[in-house]
Design brief:
2 domains; seven-stranded mixed β-sheet; binds S-adenosylmethionine; single chain; Rossmann fold; alpha/beta; 11 strands
């Protein structure tokens, strides 16, 4: 681009034009070229996500113009999701540190957190588990939504848990949010059985076909966070077998499975999954109560008996 002084608005139009003429895929925080340009430009100019449109006429220094243009080109050339470039993602209007050790937060579960999981959590949960926590976004947002709750974040990936720890620190939540490395519940102590009022999980659930077809941007995310066997349900099957043992009697399990919901219904036709509706996003999130998990234990296998 030419080196004459540009305004913020002109830089954004430039980014928009570059992105619209590229084959990048939107799906990691934005869904269009303009917002993607805003996201990257804002990180260089330190603008908040809700910056006022009156800033569009402000001029951008030559140095910042170069930095912004470099980010636009990196986004296109490397097909790297914008939050990995800026090292920041937003979830439930909260900022989270992210890098390639965790996926970029985007779960529709955010909407449930805003609504404090109503009407599924009849009473305010005292103890919450965010299973498959990655950056910690779901559990940390739950800690904000339920100011007295103790929240446990767990993940199988030590790399992901390093990012989780950064976010617990940044949100200053060490007094009631803890993290544990565990393959599902395998490292949980017996003493935490039947102690969680709410288990919420966005586990890996991409099936083998979808995984092979995903846009390049997803190749920057950890495989462990996406893939879950041929039908995308390897993890969820195990979770359904074991979750009741960690929930209180009134406890509730909320799990995102995306479009693997079709395979899940097919695998367990007898089970009355409640599928949640969202104002934004595709859904693919179900609720089962501890009572239902016990009732259908035979379908899931014998760990619930
Ligand atoms: C789809 S990501 C979700 C991350 C985060 N909850 C979010 O919504 O952004 C799934 C996470 O599950 C973790 N995971 C995969 N298999 C697991 C297992 N067997 N036990 C616990 N965590 C697992 C991955 O390391 C990854 O961080």
């Amino acid at each position: 681009m030419s080196s004459q002084t540009k305004t913020i608005g002109e830089m954004l139009e430039y980014g928009q034009m570059l992105f619209e003429n590229s084959d990048i895929y939107f799906g990691h925080g934005t869904d269009n070229a303009w917002d993607e340009a805003v996201y990257l430009l804002s990180s260089v100019l330190n603008l908040p996500p809700n910056a006022d449109r009156s800033l569009l006429d402000n001029s951008v220094s030559d140095n910042d113009q170069e930095k912004i243009a470099a980010l636009f080109h990196r986004r296109i050339d490397e097909r790297v999701p914008a939050p990995y470039i800026t090292k920041q993602a937003w979830f439930c209007t909260l900022p989270f540190y992210v890098d390639e050790r965790v996926i970029v937060p985007r779960s529709p579960i955010a909407e449930l957190i805003y609504n404090q999981f109503q009407p599924w959590c009849i009473e305010t949960p005292n103890k919450i588990l965010d299973l498959c926590t990655g950056s910690g976004c779901i559990g940390i947002a739950c800690a904000y939504a339920f100011e007295r709750a103790e929240v446990v974040l767990s993940d199988i990936s030590p790399d992901a848990l390093e990012v989780t720890a950064i976010n617990i620190d940044q949100h200053d939540l060490n007094s009631r949010v803890s993290a544990i490395e565990s393959d599902l519940f395998s490292a949980f102590e017996a003493s935490v059985k039947h102690s969680f009022d709410l288990i919420v999980s966005n586990p890996p659930y991409v099936d083998a076909d979808d995984l092979a077809k995903m846009p390049d941007e997803y190749s920057h995310e950890p495989d462990l966070a996406l893939a879950s066997g041929d039908d995308g349900l390897d993890f969820t099957r195990r979770l359904l077998r074991e979750a009741a043992n960690y929930l209180t009697q009134q406890g509730v399990l909320i799990v995102e499975v995306g479009n693997s919901s079709v395979a899940l219904e097919k695998a367990f036709p007898q089970v009355p999954f409640t599928w949640l509706e969202f104002t934004e996003g595709d859904g693919g999130v179900f609720v089962l109560t501890q009572t239902q998990l016990r009732q259908y234990a035979d379908c899931f296998g014998d760990a619930n008996k």
